[in-house]
Design goal:
Layout: E1 2-6, H1 10-19, E2 24-26, H2 29-34, H3 40-53, E3 57-61, H4 67-78, E4 84-89, H5 92-103, E5 108-113, H6 116-125, E6 129-132, H7 134-139, H8 144-158, E7 163-166, H9 172-181, E8 185-188, H10 190-195, H11 200-223
Parallel strand pairs: 1-2, 1-8, 2-3, 3-4, 4-5, 5-6, 6-7, 7-8
Helix pairs in contact: 4-5, 5-6, 6-8, 8-9
Bound molecules: erythose-4-phosphate.
Length: 224
């Protein structure tokens, strides 16, 4: 399973990239706003900065809601860097734009997917990625991880090459569950990725190994 980081923070992207396990980045207008990035020139430069840090696909979301606007914006974004994946919303115009970009060989990520039917439409239009938002479904007492399972079955039934990109991941168990089901990608906050490293037995075990090593070294010195 590929690991993407779900942030527009350059510092967090660098930190994840330095771990050696990062495969890409997803952003959205809310994440860009959180970093204080606004205005077309700054937004475009920020995407290039992200692409220069990570070796993998970087989702850049359009803010237009009509087909013509999405095409215009998406073409400008795609021209920035070969890693750019144009992120389009699950709407009628969004799906039309996915088909347009697919025919032009431009990568797309269909965002705001909350049902298997929506995922099927995105796959039929030729989306590179489909992004089911599992955390937001959990928030309304619906099982988000089950949606990943349903989409996996449908895509496998027909051999769709669209990759399932589990989004709105909130905690490490979401990542494990997505990996068990066979999601192609999980896009995660840095905190959820870092939480995967932790296990109390690893910490205790390492402390013991180091203490034993120190003790043996001290015994060797006193035996001289
Ligand atoms: C990713 O592509 C989505 O924009 C993101 O995962 C949404 O996450 P949230 O529900 O935590 O805002």
């Amino acid at each position: 399973m590929k690991f993407f980081i779900d942030t527009a923070s350059l510092a967090q992207i660098k930190e994840a990239q330095d771990l050696g396990i990062l495969d890409g980045v997803t952003t959205n207008p809310s994440l860009m706003a959180k970093e204080g990035i606004s205005g077309t020139d700054r937004v475009m430069k920020h995407y290039v900065d992200i692409c220069n840090i990570v070796h993998g696909d970087v989702s850049a979301e359009v803010i237009s809601v009509d087909f013509a606007g999405m095409v215009r914006e998406g073409e400008d974004l795609a021209a920035l860097h070969p890693s750019i994946t144009v992120k389009l919303p699950m709407t009628r115009d969004g799906v039309k734009a996915i088909k347009y970009f697919h025919d032009k060989g431009i990568k797309t990520n269909c965002t705001l997917v909350f049902s298997a039917g929506q995922a099927l439409l995105a796959a039929k239009a030729g989306a590179t990625y489909v992004s089911p938002f599992i955390g937001r479904l959990d928030d309304i007492s619906t099982n988000g991880v089950q949606l990943i399972e349903q989409i996996r079955t449908i895509f496998d039934n027909y051999g769709y090459s669209t990759q399932i990109l589990a989004a709105s991941v909130r905690h490490p168990m979401h990542i494990i569950q997505c990996a068990e089901i066979g999601a192609d990608v999980a896009t995660c906050p840095l905190s959820a990725i870092l939480a995967l490293f932790d296990h109390p037995l690893t910490t205790i075990g390492l402390e013991k190994f180091l203490a034993d090593h120190k003790k043996a070294a001290q015994q060797k010195v006193s035996a001289k």
